[in-house]
Structure formats: C-alpha cells, structure tokens
Design goal:
Number of domains: 1
Order of helices and strands: HHHHEHHEEHHHHHEH
Bound molecules: iron/sulfur cluster
Structural class: mainly alpha
Distance between the termini: 35 Å
Helix content: 40-55%
Radius of gyration: 17 Å
Strand order of the largest sheet: 1-4
Length: 214
C-alpha cells in the first residue's frame, strides 16, 4: 500500500510542476517514512521494544517545540491553502490566527496544527514530528518525554536523517545531491531550521485567504 505522502505526491502532479521545490519535500518525507517503516519492521522481527505512539496519542503535540525549515513551512502553506478544504481548513486557519507568537514567553504552546487530538496536517507534518517516537509506555498527561526520559526515544540509523536532510537542502537550493549530502552529514540542516513560533505564520493565513475558493 502506498504511504500517505506518496499518495499525496501522485494526487498532485500539477503542483509539483508548478512548485519545483515540492518534489524535494515529497522526497525528503518519503525517504524518512521509508526509513522509519524499516526500523519498526526490524524492531518487531528482533523482538525489541516498540513505540508507544499510536493514532490519537498527542501529548507530545501539546508541549514540544516544533522546529522546521522554510521549505517545510512552504509545504505546510501549500497543503493548508491548496489541498485542505471545508471545516478542516477553517479550523486550522483559526488555530493559526490564535497562535500568537510570543517570543518573550518561555512557554511552548500546543501545536496549532492539532485538531481534536489528531494532526491536521499529518501527511505534510515536519521531519521533527516524523522521527519523534517514544518506546515503552505512552507519555502520560503532562509529561515532556524529551526531558523526562530521553533514553526512551527511538534511535535511528544516521542514514534516515541524512537522506531526508539531503533532500530538504536540495529543495532549498544548497547544491547538487553530492554537495547537499555532505552538508547534511555535517549537520547543516540544524542551522537552517527554526522553531515554529519564530516562523512568519501570518503569511500562511494570508496565503490561505488569497487562495480561498468561493
Ligand atoms: S511521543 Fe508520547 S504522546 Fe507522542 S504519540 Fe508517542 S507516546 Fe503518544
Ligand atoms: S505538526 Fe502534527 S504531529 Fe507535529 S506537533 Fe503538530 S499536530 Fe503534532
């Protein structure tokens, strides 16, 4: 069965022609998802601990800082403006308007893309969300697993990070595949990501409004 990201890629060939960067984002997310699927299958076959993460579990979306690249923000803008429709679109628009960035407050707010306990942008969620898995017990209410039990984070082979990061850097114009792989291996992606709260989220709302269909 095709993954959600590959289904989306197949559904919107005209968007890939129009937005040349979009193919790199699809590639980054597909490669990352493939790596995670392999890791989960390997864990299951070895009898290792599996992630507690499951559909509808969302404590991590309430209190973790989401970091992402501009390319990923563009992808979210496209998904919100040109893919989502109806109530799903309106709800996320409202969440974004209410998500007033407050860079002075040392408080991480619930993710504005969370809707009724589920990710409203799931196929296009950022890399940081795609690789976030906690082994063993589900995070109880109020737990910040990143602080409380970092030893329970599922570790991945470096290639997972490097493959996705290479494609993101290519989409951001950092050079050829070989050049971007070298940059990814040296950790350059970390230098080009920002917290969601520091991103120009008003632009997302403006784009949604400009592309709103009657
Ligand atoms: S990280 Fe914790 S809260 Fe998030 S999906 Fe996994 S178990 Fe649930
Ligand atoms: S983008 Fe989706 S998965 Fe990531 S924190 Fe927000 S709601 Fe959770």
């Amino acid at each position: 069965m095709l993954s959600m990201i590959r289904q989306l890629e197949q559904q919107y060939p005209e968007a890939i022609r129009k937005y040349t960067w979009l193919k790199w984002l699809f590639k980054a997310y597909s490669l990352t998802d493939d790596c995670i699927s392999r890791e989960l299958a390997d864990r299951a076959s070895r009898g290792d601990r599996l992630p507690a993460c499951a559909d509808g579990c969302h404590e991590c979306c309430l209190r973790n800082e989401i970091i992402l690249s501009k390319l990923e923000l563009q992808g979210l803008s496209w998904y919100l403006s040109e893919v989502l429709t109806g109530d799903a679109r309106e709800t996320l628009r409202k969440h974004l308007v209410d998500f007033v960035p407050d860079q002075l407050a040392d408080v991480v707010k619930p993710c504005p893309f969370l809707v009724s306990g589920r990710c409203g942008v799931y196929p296009m969620r950022p890399l940081t969300c795609r690789i976030f898995y906690v082994l063993g017990d589900r995070c109880p209410s109020g737990e910040d697993a990143a602080m409380a039990r970092s030893a329970d984070f599922m570790a991945f082979h470096k290639s997972m990070y490097v493959n996705g990061a290479t494609a993101v850097l290519q989409g951001m114009g950092y050079g050829t595949a070989r050049e971007c792989r070298k940059l990814a291996e040296s950790g350059t992606l970390v230098k080009v990501v920002r917290p969601l709260q520091a991103m120009p989220l008003g632009v997302l709302v403006a784009t949604m409004d400009a592309l709103a269909k009657d």
